[in-house]
Fold these 4 entries.
Entry 1:
Amino acid sequence: SDPGLVARARAAKERLGDRVFVLGHHYQRDEVIQFADVTGDSFKLARDAAARPGAEYIVFCGVHFMAESADILTSDAQKVVLPDLAAGCSMADMASAEQVEECWDVLTDAGVADGVVPVSYMNSSADIKAFTGRHGGTICTSSNAERALDWAFGQGDKVLFLPDQHLGRNTAIRDLGMSPEDCVVYDPHRPNGGLTTQQLRDARMILWRGHCSVHGRFSLESVNEVRARIPGVRVLVHPECKHEVVAAADEVGSTEYIIKALEAAPAGSKWAVGTELNLVRRLADRFAPEGKEIVFLDRTVCFCSTMNRIDLPHLVWTLESLADGNELNQIRVDADTAHHAQVALERMLALP
Ligand code: CIZ
Ligand code: SF4
């Protein structure tokens, strides 16, 4: 990265000292990650932010829903800053508050809402988390989705899983032993979600029609192709991938799981990894000296474009502005939404 910008970022961060704490999501660019005080997945980062009450500014190098979660979990005195306000998440944007309220009306009209427990992936807006909290549901991450679903099926007889259909389906089938027929997909763009009352009554998992625009592009062909190209390769993918990809993989897990699996892998092992490219490249570079060969599962899949919006120029601009006393790009969740979202987040923290 540009040495002039690196020097400016370093100088601005030094001027701010302990007043700023920089969080870097695993999917961020290297040029940004080098300035992160901690790295992690969205949930770990939100908790790390809450564990630093002394920092006046939490600069969140990640996407919008992550900054919202950090604002919910940190004290009112702390200001969460997103270096580029256009860094959203296409998956989180696939479920709006109005659409989800409309879905609940459909479930109510079908006579099933009483037995439905919402389970929402961390990758959702604060509004969706608040809806989840209001209706007795919980949040989950890709590390605890199985425990969240087990808990939810102890509370009701159906789950409304938001907004990632793939994580919901993969967890239901792989971890809970359900059959694909137990799952239906609710499409917010079709009347009644595109489902009949009978389908809603028979379903156990009602999956929201959302997906990650990066992970959703890995294909079964890419798994077959890499196995043919690299004999002995182990395929390791994130559960936001389609079910057919997950079913064909050797191992499936969250970003933290992927990192630990590669740390524990023996020298000479070969891996094809299906998650965001910035992370895969960083892991390939990190483990190459140990003799571990790590390749990206599908060369036609690109970076997460919104994660990549946070680049070194945006970070420099943010840190220099804060150091100069100009506050900017603060992410603030209103008190009522934050309260109900926190209820749902606390249910996750209390999962057995
Ligand atoms: O796909 C993502 O954006 C992930 C894995 C986010 C997260 O929870 O850290
Ligand atoms: Fe959203 Fe997918 Fe990007 Fe994660 S990788 S921020 S889920 S679009």
Entry 2:
Amino acid sequence: MKKHNFNAGPSILPQEVLLKASEAVMDYNNSGLSVIEISHRSKDFVEIMEKARALALELLGLEGKGYKALFLQGGASTQFLMVALNLLEKRAGYLNSGTWAAKAIKEAKIYDDIYEVASSANANYNYIPKGYDIPSDYDYFHFTTNNTIFGTQMKSFPKCDIPMVCDMSSDIFSRAIDYSQFDLIYAGAQKNLGAAGTTLVVIKEDVLGKVSRKIPSMMDYKMHISKGSMFNTPPVFAVYTSMLTLEWLKNLGGVAAIEKENEKKASLMYSEIDLNPLFKGFATKEDRSTMNATFTLENENLKETFETMLKEGGINGINGHRSVGGYRASMYNALPLDSVKALVEIMSELESKA
Ligand code: PMP
């Protein structure tokens, strides 16, 4: 039986993507070769890479606006470092809204003093800090649009005159916003994009080339751009699955269409959390993420019963992160509404048993 997959990442991918990817692993387009056993310089693979790069820009509404898309390696964690290497000259401002934001700050601090514009660490990151100032003479402002662990999501973005850099690992392609307000976006593939192993980086080219340091080639965005995202051997399977997911999303109607689905799933999930007295939401209501819903079970005595019911119902991957505890239902683009219905049914059945 196929499980309801609420994993936080690596996480659910569209069935159609899994099917096409598994066929291509055996035989890519009747070529007699697997997609993972052909040269990355072959016409077939170059086409895949170019299509993935173009679709990423198209779906974000960034085509023809001076942006380049790259599929790099080393996870979003390497971007914490690359951003600083490529953009940090004097000082940068960072919003500390969660564990990943704090890790980004730690890496950037290797190069310079980082100014934390605001932090929600004192409340175990259960809200998004607001109402802070961003100094206009800084090199850039860095923030995390969706805090995967804590289930908080930025619903609006500050206006600032300096480049805006964001970690969008867990909510990229999930909603229709003006992506051109950001100058650099990065996101690990393993949530809304494809197999783990690649990180999408979308950069407005004119923010590059402004630092005085020498940048090692593998860390240099300009180098990757000049080589068409093929400076070295790319993670071919992760790029291929990303391309398939982007095609799937385009056929569905793009980010505006998937946003509607994501809203339906999130509102179903949160109304159960709010109405069912057995459960309590972790994140502040106004900052609740449409991608990751975090909640706790108030009565510990029901834990075993609840978890048996989850298991029997085929609900997979909803254990909370250790720093929050409780549960986390990740509802990425590929998760069907029916999976949320199945989870919510179990939660309300537990209430009737209690
Ligand atoms: N940023 C966010 C928001 C994340 O959720 C994660 C991983 N879950 C990371 C960064 C780190 O990504 P990676 O494991 O690809 O380095």
Entry 3:
Amino acid sequence: IRRAVIRGTGHYLPERVVENSWFEGKVDTNDEWIRSRTGIERRHFAAEGQMTSDLGIRAARAALDDAGMSADDIDAIVLATSTPDLTFPAVATMVQAGLGMTRGFAFDVQAVCAGFVFALANAEGLIRTEQAERVLVIGAETFSRILDWDDRSTSVLFGDGAGAVVLEAAEGQGTSDDRGILASDLNSDGQYRDLLYVDGGVSSTGTAGQLKMQGNLVFRHAVEKLAKTAHTALDKAGLTAEQVDWLVPHQANARIISATAQKMGLPMEKVVLTVSDHGNTSAASIPLALSVAAAEGRFKPGDVIVTEAIGGGLSWGSVVLRW
Ligand code: ACO
């Protein structure tokens, strides 16, 4: 059967690094609170005029370099974001143009923090159904543009950045020993809209709006739903948690990540943790973590990697792959 194998990873983080202490004069908070409640120490913020597509293009170029490919080799771009440059066209088409690609196709996926997991599952579908041989899958966000700087309970949590992977079709045996994406599990439940949303948009206010979150409620859903979706995806792949080499979770909060790992029976040595340096970069956090860990040489060929994420919607899911 046709599998979708990761051939390269790359990422880009804006130059400007903002430490927790930066927020101390702006809202009633402190470095110790942010660190102990979230695990976040610093985040990157895009410069004025630097857009989601700019971050995406840089991450895409890095992933292509890593794969030893050029833009001409790519048939499709699937980009996950909730912070597009414009209402339309899709940021993916802006990345396409930025890479100098005039063939193939490109579109965005919107599932907030779960966006990269949804994009990866969709890209695998394109490869399986022979609509593409090679797909660039990107998560790119500029959440700094939708933060309420007067709200200490949300403004300290998010960062900007982009990550990308190159997927390529490869023949597999149809067993859990194959390299590539082995299984996915996607979920949404729109009745939880008010737990995490942006209070503006094209057809409502005509403005971009600001992020609103009931963090403690999202926290509870996260811990319960993330371990469950990861187990479901593992089950579909014919694998168990004991066979997992790496958990590469959405990086929202170190406490959610460690609680999920614990529920899955995974020691923290098997968890890729980047939230301290990146904050929550929404759809970019998983490809960023994949790219950072891959660059450090942490993944060996054949390793089983579980990605999982939850975000606005609520939407949540997991993709299991063999490196
Ligand atoms: N500094 C100091 N105090 C703060 C801050 C801050 N930055 N933020 C909140 N507090 C206060 C609150 O006001 C509250 O004070 P009170 O008791 O006087 O009312 C107290 O800290 C406790 O607040 P909680 O919200 O209960 O704190 P909690 O331990 O739950 O941590 C947090 C808050 C970090 C937001 C946590 O709930 C969380 O991480 N939630 C999940 C976030 C998440 O995963 N989002 C999903 C993905 S994001 C996406 O899809 C875009």
Entry 4:
Amino acid sequence: VGQNLVTLKEADSTNNYLKELLSNSKPVADGTVIMAESQYAGRGQQQNKWNSEPGKNLTFSVLLKPSFLPLQQQFYLTQTISLGVVTAMQQVTGLPIQIKWPNDIYYGDKKLGGILIENMVQGSGIKNSVVGIGLNINQEVFPDWVPNPASVKQILHKDYELSALLLQICGSIEAWYLKLKAGRLDEIHRQYLANLYWLNQERDFMSDGVAFKGRITGVRNTGFLVLSTESGEKEFNLKQIVFLNK
Ligand code: BTN
């Protein structure tokens, strides 16, 4: 991962750029990384925009070809990438950075980064996976419309060199990806849970506009979040649940 690295001054979105490369019929190597200093149409999950001040943060996309992974095990790719990013960020910063289900990067109750995975399916497998990663590193001020952001700079008051950080994260993603390839699924799942924000804590959630108390007890292989609530165990997908902070 990152052996083949393309650095752009500007792109609409590195995910879009990589997807266009793939549709241009020339082969693109597994592990190719597209990084942009600035994105003018950065995308987040659920149709959100992704804000990133030019030159201050990491915005990049990784091409993976997880053809060995059955479609029903897609969520293991999400767990693998999340672990790759979070463990690298922990090592570099020394901070107890966590994964907010399914794949946000959190420090305390603040969002440091996010991941947008777009899979191209062929038959019963994933042919290409475009893994977009945005991490707030050196940005000091965020626009008001961005929900609870934080950057490493705001926490540690120092700047990080982006190219060195990118290489570390790529190395870490590769290490976790090799575990996925080797079929070490239980280990990946255990480590994902070990780094999960709000695991086993009594917290407030909202579903269908109704607030309730619950405790995250696990995550299914399908990616569903499992909560223990007053009315028993319940499962949710991303659209069905909101985490409520005090
Ligand atoms: C989210 O938390 O909603 C996911 C954010 C993903 C942002 C990254 S930045 C690089 C790549 N290109 C994009 O347009 N989005 C992803």
